[in-house]
Every structure is written in C-alpha cells, then in structure tokens.
Write a structure and sequence with these properties.
Layout (H helix, E strand, L loop, with lengths): L11 E5 L2 E5 L12 H10 L15 H12 L9 H23 E2 L2 E2 L2 H6 L2 H33 L6 H9 L6 H12 L4 H8 L11 H25 L3 H9 L4 H12 L1 H17 L2 H6 L7 H10 L4 H30 L1
Helix pairs in contact: 3-15, 5-9, 5-12, 9-12, 10-11, 12-15, 14-15
C-alpha cells in the first residue's frame, strides 16, 4: 500500500521501536491528531516491519488536506507583532535616525566635527563624572538592596507584603516631586539643619554637593535593584540550599557558593536598571546639585533647550547611548562568566 506524505510533513522524524514514522509536530500526515495514540499503540504492538495502516489509508487524505487548509487560513501569529513593529519604527528607529543625522550635520555639510568636540577635556570630565557617580550609585544600591531583597524573600519574614508596599509607594509619586522633597530636607534652612540648630550644632552644607546628588540617585533608583533580586531569590529552589547544608557547607559558603551565584540574574538586571537612568539623569543633579554638579544629562538638556545646538546635543546623545549599550554588554558578560 502506497502512503502519501505531503511535503510539509517530512520535517521531523519519530523513531518508535526502530521504525521511522514521518510526522509534523502539529499536522500528522494521513491521520487526524486524535488517531495518534492508536497508531503509536499499533506500531509498538506490531513486530512486523510492515505496519497495519488499514485504518489510516489514503481515504483520510482528503479530510487531512481540509484540516491543513483550514489551519493555513488561520490568522498568522506574525500579525500580532506588527503593532509593536510600527511602534518601534515610529518612536525608536525614526527618532534615532534624526538624532544620528543631526549629530553628523555641520555648517559645511555632513561630518564628524560634533563628535570631535565631544572628546574635548571639558566634556570628557563631565562624562567621567557621570559614569563615576552612576557606578557608585549602582554599588550602593546593590549593597543596600541585596540584603533587603534577601530578607523579603525569606519565608520567616511575615510582613513582606507591607514592606514591598512601602518600597513601591514613593514610586507612585511624581519623580520631580520626590526630588523637590529632598531639597526641602537638605537645604540650608531645611529639616535636618533646623533640627541641628535646636541642639546647638552648626548647620551642614548638604545641598548643591555630589553627596546630595548621590543621595537623590540612590533614593530614586534603589527599588529597581531590590525588586529583581527579590523576585529571583523568591523563586529559587530551596532544595539546592538544603542540599548544600546537608553536605556540610556553613552559612557563609552556602551564600557565596549557592545563593549569590543563583541570584546573579536579578543582580545583573537590577544593576542595569539602576546604572542606565543614573548615568543619564539631569533632574536630580540640577535640583540637588544646584548647577554645581554638572552631569552629561545636564549638558545635553542645556544644549537642546537653552543653546539650541541640536547638532552637538545629538552627538552627545549618541555617545551616551553607546556608553549605555557597552555597559549593558559588560553587565551581561560579567553575569555569564560569574554564572559559569
């Protein structure tokens, strides 16, 4: 008996008891999917190389072709990606094209003069200050956020829902208002200095400093570090930890050899989500730095809004974007190597 296999049904091979039966993962040739258990049983019970395919003869070809034809007429899944594709083109690709175009635009035509100006010592110092503060902010958020995420993920901690609510509640408030609140706390006549004066202590110069900017960064971005770490630790298999303890590992070894390596995806994700907004921020440095702590985000903002030098601002934006992409690649590389 000749058996018909349509061309699209010969992609996969199932080796059952030594006999090859060609099939497609979603459309079986010559038979309805509901007949697969019967055919499998027939293959396993029949010791002869000649399979009994009487129930699956060519009379089923017509029905199977109808099923395949109806499935082909269904709405392709690729259509669901089109809205996202349109969004990416309209709000990412086209704006990025104009930014790159403006960065290459000079009075003499297209050129790299704007990029050459980016590497002047003045702007290199600003870049270095932005990266340095962003790295310090990321490290501080990790040092403070990892224990918080670890405690929240602990089964013995009963108030985790309330504590998570406290972490998330400030994020419901406007970012600008949260930063203005820190201005009220840190300024020369603010809350802290008013309390110090009551005890006869001289007021401290806290506002318009790098420390104030760093405090604002850590306060605004630390939830982005805590939540990924908490999620990874919460979903961690506790049997691995129990096995390490059963093998004689002390708590320190269990943490550094088991818990921390398994939580690295959360650490890398949190570090990325903290570093990216920290290196490009300008509101925090503008309000808490008072114009004395100049970051690359402040330079871009003023070149766009005040100086109307869109070409140079676009070149700075491209360099900043490349810096962020390199940092993401480094974080991923560190995570993979540490995981291995």
């Amino acid at each position: 008996m000749s058996v018909y296999f349509p061309p699209y049904c010969v992609e996969n091979f199932l080796n059952i008891n030594g006999y090859l039966h060609k099939a497609h993962e979603s459309r079986l040739c010559l038979l309805d999917r509901a007949k697969l258990p019967c055919l499998t049983k027939n293959i396993l019970e029949n010791p002869s190389p000649i399979l009994d395919l009487t129930d699956y003869s060519s009379r089923d070809n017509h029905n199977i072709e109808k099923i395949i034809e109806s499935e082909d007429k269904r709405l392709p899944k690729k259509l669901f990606a089109y809205p996202y594709l349109i969004w990416v083109i309209a709000f990412i690709a086209i704006p990025m094209f104009f930014i790159v175009y403006y960065s290459l635009n000079t009075p003499e035509g297209l050129g790299l003069d704007n990029y050459a100006r980016v590497f002047e010592p003045l702007f290199l110092n600003v870049f270095w200050r932005s990266i340095r503060l962003a790295v310090i902010c990321t490290v501080i958020c990790l040092v403070l956020g990892y224990p918080a995420g670890y405690i929240l993920a602990s089964k013995d901690f009963e108030q985790k829902g309330f504590i998570i609510f406290l972490f998330l509640m400030p994020m419901w408030m406007n970012f600008l208002l949260r930063t203005y609140a820190w201005m009220t706390i840190l300024e020369n006549n603010g809350v802290i200095n008013s309390i110090l004066e009551r005890f006869g202590i001289a007021p401290l110069a806290m506002i318009n400093t790098e420390e104030a900017v760093m405090l604002g960064m850590v306060y605004n971005f630390i939830p982005f570090m805590i939540l990924p770490i908490y999620t990874v630790l919460k979903n961690m298999d506790t049997k691995v930890i129990e096995a390490a303890k059963d093998l004689g590992a002390n708590p320190v070894k269990v943490f550094f050899r088991v818990i921390f390596p398994l939580s690295l995806p959360g650490v890398i994700s949190g570090a990325t989500m903290v570093f990216m907004p920290a290196v490009s921020t300008f509101v925090i440095s503008d309000l808490l730095g008072g114009g004395r702590v100049f970051l690359i985000g402040n330079v871009i903002e003023r070149e766009f809004m005040t100086a109307s030098n869109w070409e140079f601002a676009s070149a700075l934006s491209v360099i900043l974007m490349v810096t962020v992409l390199i940092s993401i690649g480094l974080f991923s590389l560190i995570g993979r190597r540490a995981g291995n």
